[in-house]
Amino acid sequence: ELTPIKVGASVTPHAEILEAAKADLAEAGYDLQIVEFEDYVLPNMSLENGELDANYFQHSAYLADFNAENDTNIVEVAKIHYEPFGIYAGKVSSLDALTEGSKIAVPNDSTNEARALLLLEQEGLIKLNKDAGQQATIRDITENSKNLEIVELEAATIPRVLGEVDLAVINGNYAISAGMSIKDAVAIEAKDSRAVEDYYGNVLCVKAGNENREDIKALVKALQSETVKKFMEDTYDGAVVPCF
To answer: Which of 8, 185, 211, 213 is packed most tightly, with the most Cβ within 10 A?
Structure first.
């Protein structure tokens, strides 16, 4: 008889990725029960209250903020994937084509703006105050050799203004809804970038104290398997990238 392990997840892609791990977990003696959520609060509260064994829906930055704001004690046990931000062509088709004063659109909300600026830093276009991290804004730019104009816009509107800027940094979901693929991007977040390593990798989480349970170890192993890696690579066309 299989031992149940209950995991909360967002429907896409997290629950789909968990489904891909079910068979490996069954071989290890566990019945993976996936509980789908459509919000970002209940899966953490359910984990904190002991209704779930683990959850998989959030990135590290969100988890840190959630714990601070809700006095919860949830910890990450493994990074599983990230959903890359991309830099997309507007008036120019490459980073090398940027000139003095070129315009680059970025999201204007705090989390996404910081992520966009970290991507511009990754590509050598700017440098940021090293302490800014996930709170970075344009005020934290310490070097901007081409005097690039960073245009702050509502994230959802950026795909519609590509013809008015030289390049744009676009969230994956908004790029997809605009009919764009991450493969169209001229640059994307790297697996080993500061953004992914420290803030925006999607993580498997448990309530503190449960990190070393045998069922959690088995769950981590199944999610970081070659089976799951192949599923991500075959299913999401670059929009979901394994972190392992």
So the answer is: 8
